[in-house]
Amino acid sequence: MVSHRGRGPTIRDVARRAGVSAATVSRVLNDSPLVVEPTRARVRAAVDELGYRMNATARTLSLGRATAVGVVVPFFTTHSVIERLRGVVARLSGYGQRGYDLLLFDVEAPAQRADAMRDLADRNRVAGLLIVSLPIFDAEIDALQRDELPAVLLDVRHPRLPRVVVDNVRGGELAAEHLLAKGHSRIGFVGDHPTNAYGFTSSEDRRRGFGAALERAGNRLDPALQRFGLADREEAEVLTRSLLGRSSPPTAIFAASDLQAIGVLKGCEAMGARVPEDVAVIGFDDVDLAEIVGLTTIRQPLRESGEQAADLLIAAIEDGVDDPVEEVQQLTVVERRTT
Amino acid sequence: MVSHRGRGPTIRDVARRAGVSAATVSRVLNDSPLVVEPTRARVRAAVDELGYRMNATARTLSLGRATAVGVVVPFFTTHSVIERLRGVVARLSGYGQRGYDLLLFDVEAPAQRADAMRDLADRNRVAGLLIVSLPIFDAEIDALQRDELPAVLLDVRHPRLPRVVVDNVRGGELAAEHLLAKGHSRIGFVGDHPTNAYGFTSSEDRRRGFGAALERAGNRLDPALQRFGLADREEAEVLTRSLLGRSSPPTAIFAASDLQAIGVLKGCEAMGARVPEDVAVIGFDDVDLAEIVGLTTIRQPLRESGEQAADLLIAAIEDGVDDPVEEVQQLTVVERRTT
DNA sequence: CTGAAAGCGCTTACAG
DNA sequence: CTGAAAGCGCTTACAG
What stretch(es) of chain A map to CATH 3.40.50.2300? Predict the structure, then answer.
């Protein structure tokens, strides 16, 4: 009888026990209004007695739709991604009777991206897709729509898909305004390479807004005071040393992310520059690290963004709502000790 | 034809196209040696032409075993957990033809723990379970073994299950030896409540080893210099203030985790105590934060622990290896600026 | 309101 | 070496 590994009781066992058909058991399990109360009770009793638990795999196959949600994230350990994911996790586990399972895909190299998208989309093990911070191609959207697979973007903007984003250009402006108000005029920037293998654009958007705001104030973002590198701490530190090694170093630096800002701080320390006396530093994101080191930063609601994106996805899955809405989240400057 | 949402081609479509039976297609897909080469080629061609992709759900149902691995973690955002998870993720995606999917369960409250275990174990959507940092009950192990569900523990010790752990008692000793070598004699401790709803014991184990080593050196861990609270930063800060508010405050503090050590550092700052001049601080874990703030700490290989645990689980799943081995990882003290 | 039957897309003894 | 058939555990028109 028990073939593979000790499978538990099935719907048929319950049916037998309750003296009804499997169809009826299924109806009770799915809260169909068709079943009369006494029958329901018998079925429920049988379920309890047998310790029956529904096989989600069979259900998925029969229904043609999964109860899991696929989440694709880059660099699983980035603080901002984790913070977003936390919002997603919190939301997902709260939904529906038993919530959605969360299938996690980490993309550590550009090539893995395509694999993840295809795996998740085509194998129909997933009721929807949440794509975090990874630019998506039109061909991929075509594929998703062909499969009628709901998808939501988080921290990525594409006109054809619902998305939760932030106005990065505006964020750059806020950073500029803050530094300007502090009286700085020789201001530097440390961010990602304008072009990168993933197609990330946040850093560039922030820099553009930053530069534009400086110009509007009669100042400018001197190309000589800009440095670009990988989005990590070490690299930001190196770039900062080079910036501070100049004959007339900047008196303030805007880093495209908090992680990079931490690198900037290290660079300042290494070069013997006091923060904020010699050079002020402002980051972007407001990850937990920012508070810990006392970093002034542009806060974006990371956790909330995950919650909102999850909500959008659930709406798309359960109610078929998939207008490509754009939810733009609020940015605020959080002043701490580095400016 | 296409009923639910545009399902892709099935094995039958491929069979028709290749002029063979579905059974043969299945065999080719599963690399059965039974199929002769010319047939294989035809099937492969059909697969390509149709863009066929196997339905993992159907396969799981038919085989009675899943291709996903369930990972249960507490407090998804704790740095140490994330770091471990990263190792798991890296390992899982590398295995087999297409690797294992990762089903993530976050336990934010003790009650969720049971739900997660049951959901994952019973619904047989998962080929194995990786339990991180969460103590497991005998009844749960019984259930797992009844279902023949492979399970591996990470940062938890139970004699009946394979596990990857660290010797926390020894870690405490290392911390004591380090502080003693620095000439400290009035030494405090900040850690978790000895009893907590999750049953975590790391903090207590570390404290015990710490106290024992002090005594062995003719010193002792004065109960008046111990403080217990939740495993978070804010609480550790509050506890530290109380410790430093004493008439004869400790000259060194061992925190049960880096996160708590950061709180200790904040507490020192708030009380105007210089680190390490007035009070030395040592943590435990060596999460990324530790390096960033220059914290001296007891390093445990977090990422590697995830990799090892994943390896054990895969071995259990694929080769049926499930002797309850215990892999004990190396601890080292990393001296930075706080001692 | 309930049941018998077909179907979801695979796999795998069992024949041949 | 290959195919027909039964089965994995559900769901849901279709009858009654």
Answer: 65-166+303-328, 168-301
CATH architecture of the domain B168-300 equals: 3-Layer(aba) Sandwich (3.40)
Indicate the pairing of strand A101-107 with strand B101-107. Answer: antiparallel
Q: Report the pLDDT averaged over residues B131-158.
A: 89
Backbone angles phi, psi at B277, to 5 degrees: -55, -55
Q: At A278, list the tokens.
A: 């010699």
pLDDT at B99 over 80: no
| A44-71 pLDDT per residue, tens | 999 999 888 888 889 889 988 788 899 9
Is the CB atom of residue A27 positioned under 7 angstroms from any atom of strand D?
yes
Nucleotides of strand C lying closer than 7 angstroms to a protein CB:
1-5, 7-13
B66-166+303-329 has which fold?
A: Rossmann fold (3.40.50)
pLDDT band at A27 (very low <50, low <70, confident <90, very high): very high
Q: Which residues touch strand C (CB under 7 A)?
A: A 19-24, 27, 33-36, 38-39, 58, 61-62, 64; B 3, 7, 10-12, 22-23, 26-27, 29-30, 52-55, 58-59, 61-63
- Nearest Cα residue to B147 out of B59, B65, B56, B63: B65
From the list B76, B148, B149, which residue is nearest A86 (CB)? B76
- Reported as a single tens digit per residue, the pLDDT across B171-192 is 999 999 999 999 999 999 999 9
Using the Cα atoms of residue A244, residue A249, residue A253 and residue A257 in order, give the sign of their dihedral. negative
